[in-house]
Design goal:
The structure holds 2 protein chains of 2 kinds.
Chain A: E1 2-7, H1 14-25, E2 30-37, H2 40-48, E3 61-67, H3 73-89, H4 104-109, E4 115-119, H5 122-134, E5 138-141, H6 148-160, E6 165-166, E7 172-175, E8 178-181, E9 188-196, H7 198-210, E10 215-220, H8 233-243, E11 250-255, H9 260-271, E12 277-281, H10 289-299, E13 309-310, E14 318-319, E15 321-326, H11 329-341, E16 368-369, E17 389-392, H12 396-399, H13 410-421, E18 425-433, H14 442-455, E19 460-465, H15 474-483, E20 487-489, H16 492-501, E21 503-504
Parallel strand pairs in A: 4-5, 5-6, 9-10, 9-11, 11-12, 14-21, 15-17, 15-18, 16-17, 18-19, 19-20
Antiparallel strand pairs in A: 1-3, 2-3, 7-8, 13-20
Chain B: E1 11-15, H1 17-25, E2 30-33, H2 43-50, H3 55-67, E3 72-78, H4 79-82, E4 89-92, H5 104-116, H6 127-132, E5 137-140, E6 146-147, E7 159-164, E8 171-175, H7 191-215, E9 218-219, H8 220-228, H9 239-256, H10 259-270, H11 277-289, E10 300-306, E11 309-314, E12 322-325, E13 330-333, E14 346-347, H12 351-355, H13 376-387, E15 390-399, E16 405-411, H14 413-419, E17 425-430, E18 438-444, H15 450-460
Helix pairs in contact in B: 2-15, 5-7, 7-9, 8-9, 9-10, 14-15
The chains are: A alpha/beta, B alpha+beta.
Chain lengths: 509, 474
Amino acid sequence: MNHVDVRRGAYADSVTLMQVSRSVATSHGVDGAMVAMATPLNLDLLAGMGFEPPDASPNDMVVAIRLGPDGELDEALSAVDAALAVARRTRAAGAVEAAPHRTTATALRDSDATLALVSVPGPYAFVEAMDALAASRDVMVFSDNMPLEQEIRLKSEAAERDLLVMGPDCGTAVVGGLGLGFANATRPGPVGVVAASGTGCQQLLCLLDSGGVGITAAFGVGGRDLSEPVGGVSTRQAMRRLDADPATELIVVVSKPPAATVATELVSYAGELSTPAEFVLLGAGEPDLTAGAERVLAALDRPTPAWPRWGERAASTRVGYLRGLYCGGTLCDEAMLIAGQAGETGQAGQAGQTGQAGQTGRQLGPVRSNIPLSPELALDGSLTAPAHLMIDFGDDALTAGRAHPMIDPTLRLERLAAEAADPDTAVLLLDVVLGHGAHPDPAADLAPEVAATTTRGVPVVIALVGTAADPQDLEGQATALADAGAEVFASNAEATRRAVALVGTGGLR
Amino acid sequence: MTDPLHREPSVVATGVDLLADAVDAQAAPVTRVDWQPPMPGTDDDLATVAGDRRRPAANAEAVRRMLDVSAHLVDVVPAREALGLGAGDFLHAGPPITWERASGPMRGALMGACALEGLVDDPERAAPMLATGTQVSLDPCHHHGAVGPMAGVVSASMWMWVLEDPASGRRTYCSLNEGLGKVLRYGAYSPDVLDRLRWMSTTLGPLLQAAVRRAGPIDVTAILTQMLHMGDEAHNRNRSGTLMLLRDLGPALVDAGASGDVAEAIRFIGGNDHFFLNLAMPACKLALDAARDVEGSTMVVAMARNGTDFGIQVSGTGDRWFTGPAQVPEGLYLGDYGPDDANPDIGDSAITETAGLGGFSMAAAPAIVRFVGGTVPDALATTRRMYEITLAESPRWSVPTLEFRGAPTGIDVSLVCRTGIVPQINTGMAGRVAGVGQVGAGLVTPPAEIFPAALAELAASADRQPSASGARSS
């Protein structure tokens, strides 16, 4: 079968077109092909090949294809388009290095990238993220401080285009095995994670990894996704993606305390999916992240391991206040919920094999914070108070103009030294988060300060969030911190309960 | 879509390097965007325009309309016939301007045109008439489907190229190019300038009309395609275009007229490397006019200067001009002239850049960078930079030195504001004083502030309605 079409006004030089013709002529099912400008000479050649010369001017491109018995015209025509596109784009070896693109839109135009990763300052993030959606790409927005109405607009655009917006303020994602933002090196496995919480996601991934369970993907959706105004749009989109993935056997949704209506809607949406889903939604009276990980393992018929811990237990309790110094907002939230709710049960030494809330145990009472669980617990700008404190150094107000504390430990180290010197400090509780994007060796800076603190008799409890495959070397970090005198836990919930237990009950001086 | 969960991921990273480093460390491909904050004061308008629901489709439509146009040279006729101009009606380059604000070369060209049309005997006597507006009217070429290089003054007796888009029948017009040096469009009005114009009206115009009517229509858009492969960028270098026009019209010219006149006409055209500019410009305008008035489109459809103001028009904001002070070009000067002698930027010829030629295709014409003592890599870098502020690549105008990549076309106001990259324009320089003529040629950019002004208007008219499905859709 012979096919001839004329592309009016299309142009390429003759050398290019000879290359295109050769490429098409050798493609599947094609017996002969000529793609050329319709000059009189070329039209003669065309006639010589047995084609009916079309009515065309030398400024038109003519595409002539002779199909073999098993040839498909559509396939051959797409081969023409592909060859023309390649011919336009092939860069000569040794060509002058082009300057980098200046916008997400122009970069995606010249790229087959599957995903855009946006981390420009918040006021500018919407424009870059919309570029990605317009180019039919998913986007992860690491930036925080995106205005709420922009987040809503962005996510509605994505829903219309069946694309996924991760974020804004999405710190963690794992897509196709690639860790984005602050992400731990996890193994492939049956769990698909949707997380409206960066460090909450990391804690879950690391505990599952420690329990021998890997993931298909972890989609961060941004801390506000499960709020009333945003309405869980990205969560739903991510759940749908995971539901469509045959390798995902169990969907897990992790979130900071969500809006009740949104949580209810999502639970009901999960019922429409063919893949079972577990919800780990932090809040008063709700299971903590460790309990969530245990539920996930149980749902997969996996045994719950003893969560890893390192270091010698502090000899005695100390009267005073708990001082928590956190990098991870969700870990800080979780610690406040636990400390305000229930302490370690029984004697020291039986610390939480189960992280289930509502255990009998001592409550510390109100915990003051820069990210308080309720407004009356807020700290003033000094971030100090004669009280139990939990400070999130990753909060926007403390990261303005500097890197996240997972990268730049300066502020937290200063505060650690100050707390160690405070006679009212009973115990220090810290998190250390490993993985891609984080500080390459956090223990190097932290261990000397920990040693100085424990030497003063102030116990230090650390939640160490990492996997064995993380670039920082989990065991090495744990050992360095334990050698400095810290009690180190893989579970933040266990670490918190242990810290609460170390607050002596003798009243304050 | 393809399976997004298990596809080998690759990333475009915009923002902090650390995150791109982490992707790199996992051996996944990452393209880094050299992001910088946008032009001051544009943050909110950029976000509003980015969220305008109409924008992606509107820009695609504007681009499609522009690229669908072919410009065919179909006729040559006097302006009184083509545009209905009376003896005192004058068109000029750029956005609207009054005599009071007109620069030297604009005034000089208008004075010369008054004499050409017989309103005064001596151009020097035309000023009062032009100042009071008695018997004369001034209007931009752009408001009449026309374009004019430099001062761009068109009067009733000047002959105009007529270009037509065969698909729509729409037409655009441009005068015949007078050559370089002391010429009316650069503000010169001496007797030899007027004599040349009279010869063009009495001899050259009618000859070209006869030739075009015999040989035409001639596909100007297609000649532009060839020019980019022959070292021309169709604004400041039109050498091969001029020769190709002579090739196409030559036989018909010979058939059309008396041998003495024909020889003179061919000598005149062949001696003026810029003769084709006046065909390139209306061809670009014909394409860009098709892209006008698409609601929500942020594409620039005209850039033009009157020697005082630089103005742009944008598809989504109708006929409104956004203007700022025209800049003085940087470049090389003729003879003893220097920067003090140069007038600020003037002419409608930036319509070529608006369409993707001229400075935007500088990589196709490395000889042009010599105007500013630049290098061939500078020319490549300039064209590459223009891709950062354009919506599309031309399917028929391609740049050999960039591996035949399509010329960057369709300037996006939003991308200009985001990147701070302003359009690069190749241009001639007129003398500051009326009557002097050309003093040099070089490179120039628009005043940056006109793009945020256009953006603000686009933002004010943006469609902010949430979608029917809303954020809660599933």
